[in-house]
Amino acid sequence: MTKKLEEEFNLPPLQEALDKEEQAPTIEETQNEIVEIADALSVSEKINMAFKDVQGLEEHELEMNDIAKEALSSYKQLMSLGMNVSDMAAGKVFAEASTMLRIALDASDTKTKAKLQQIDLMIKKARLDSNTGNGKNNDAAGNILYDRNELLKIINKNDK
After folding, report:
1. Is 86 left (phi over 0), alpha (psi -120 to 50) or beta?
2. How many CA atoms are closer than 13 Å to the CA of 145, on its beta-carbon side?
3. Phi, then psi, of 141 in degrees rounded to 5
4. How much is the pTM?
5. Which residues sit opposite 138 in a β-bridge?
6. Which of 10, 67, 143, 149 could share a disulfide with 107, CB 3.0–4.6 Å?
7. Which residues contact 89 (CB under 8 A, 6 or more apart)?
8. What is the rounded CA–CA span in Å between residue 66 and residue 68?
């Protein structure tokens, strides 16, 4: 490669690029990365398992996926069309293509927001159940846990 090509394409010198390829990650780095990925996948699986009880979430996700696919398809078609029309008309076509891309992004964001709202509602419900005593709070040994107020209520009921 010549210096001009390196400068034109903003590339590092050839020798520097070859040196980087020769440096392979160590076994420990690879194992750490595998553990991190496995942890992330297990958390993701737990979240997905919690969502199986929620009705209508899959339908929403499928609808948003369809909208995103259609918007991306329209974006690609409009970009292709914009390249083949006159410069005067291309601006409007590219603006519409940009709108399609924004719609695809919004559809993807909507799926994520719906899942986060569901998680938030699950957390609030668990907190409410724990505060009101409707939920069964168990420790690792299977013993039921009560807070101070619940214990006082139970003791007062037994005294009467």
Report:
1. beta
2. 10
3. -85, -5
4. 0.45
5. 144
6. 67
7. none
8. 5
